[in-house]
Amino acid sequence: MSTIIPEGKNLRNALAWVEEGLKEGKRLDILLTEAGMRFNLAPLEDQFLAKFYRKKIEANR
Description:
The protein is 70% helix and 0% strand. It is an all-alpha fold.
């Protein structure tokens, strides 16, 4: 599966942070909510993260 690399620095940092949290066994919904606040993501960036992980989960089923 090809991966689209997000352009914004905050979004890239949020993506890396969420990935690290998932490796530690944290819940995705909580990570996504916190990432939006922690990295000051715009609403479209929040939507991108949610969509990215939704597609990733569906691809792994």
